């Protein structure tokens, strides 16, 4: 019996483990190997050990690397506040089952199923300084120079808001599932004790939503640190304007494959960026998971 059970476990786990090895473990090991060699274009040369990491943390790469890392961290904080905060409020509104509940639930989740590339190009049209409907609306309100993607002060915030619009339905449904999993007896007991709806939300619902928060926080962290598609589509590989929207993903792409303003590539430094990014995501996710799971409440 035990042998048969083990055999079935091997049969079902082997495809998933195989995919993990092919698409996660091998690329990570390969990137680590690439980072230990010097490169001329895509031709591997001598073994240099940690020299590419030293280059990354010295002139001229250090400032770009730290700026890009800072943008990734700002994206994580911004998306946690805006995207997941709005998602939580939407989930609570849907949990109260308003009229047309099913319509609103589908509408909230609809942007998630759209291609991120399509979303990026659509918002580029909306924000176009000449023909964009949002630009025309801003001009009608007296804002003559409305060009958020062209202003280094607002470009990153604009990308975060677009990203939040696209993804807000996902945390909303995760939180909604968590709310539906909480027994009504907890809320009834609190109301009998005189708790207001606000107190029920803060003191009863939020602590019991800890498992949902764990999932959302970890996925938001991973997504923010690996942020690439939307900045690439809306701001270009150089993180325009003036690298105000640069991220580690964009910097890796520029170093590995070059850009319009950079005719050459540096595969060794690019591989070093990917290794550091892999470590940040892995360690951050592990620590975050441990801390957040310790705060979960058993139902």
From TrEMBL:
Q: Which gene encodes it?
A: lacF_9
Q: Name one GO cellular component term.
A: plasma membrane
Bilayer-crossing residues are: 7-34, 73-95, 107-126, 164-183, 204-224, 267-287
Where is the protein situated, by its record's location annotation? Cell membrane
Q: Where does this protein have coiled-coil stretches?
A: none
Gene Ontology biological process terms, A to Z:
transmembrane transport
Q: Which family does it belong to?
A: Belongs to the binding-protein-dependent transport system permease family.
Domain of life where this protein originates: Bacteria
- What name does UniProt use for this protein? Lactose transport system permease protein LacF
């Amino acid at each position: 019996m035990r042998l048969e059970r083990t055999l079935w476990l091997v049969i079902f786990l082997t495809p998933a483990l195989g995919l993990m090895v092919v698409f996660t473990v091998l690329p990570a090991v390969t990137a680590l190997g690439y980072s230990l060699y010097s490169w001329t274009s895509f031709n591997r040369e001598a073994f240099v050990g940690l020299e590419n990491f030293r280059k990354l943390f010295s002139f001229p790469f250090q400032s770009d690397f730290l700026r890009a890392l800072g943008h990734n961290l700002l994206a994580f904080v911004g998306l946690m506040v805006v995207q997941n905060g709005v998602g939580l409020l939407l989930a609570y509104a849907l949990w109260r089952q308003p009229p047309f509940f099913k319509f609103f639930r589908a509408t909230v989740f609809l942007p998630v199923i759209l291609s991120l590339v399509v979303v990026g190009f659509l918002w580029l049209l909306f924000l176009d300084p000449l023909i964009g409907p949002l630009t025309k609306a801003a001009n009608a309100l007296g804002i003559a120079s409305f060009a958020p993607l062209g202003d280094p002060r607002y470009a990153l915030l604009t990308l975060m808001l677009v990203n939040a619009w696209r993804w807000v339905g996902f945390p909303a449904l995760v939180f909604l599932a968590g709310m539906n999993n909480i027994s009504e007896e907890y809320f009834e007991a609190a109301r009998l004790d005189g708790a207001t709806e606000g107190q029920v939300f803060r003191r009863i619902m939020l602590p019991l939503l800890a498992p949902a928060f764990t999932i959302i926080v970890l996925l938001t962290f991973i997504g923010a640190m690996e942020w690439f598609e939307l900045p690439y589509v809306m701001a270009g590989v150089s993180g325009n304007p003036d690298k105000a929207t640069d991220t580690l993903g964009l910097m890796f792409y520029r170093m590995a494959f070059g850009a319009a303003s950079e005719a050459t590539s540096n595969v060794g430094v690019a591989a070093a960026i990917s290794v550091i990014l892999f470590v940040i995501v892995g360690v951050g996710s592990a620590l975050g998971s441990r801390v957040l799971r310790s705060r979960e409440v058993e139902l």
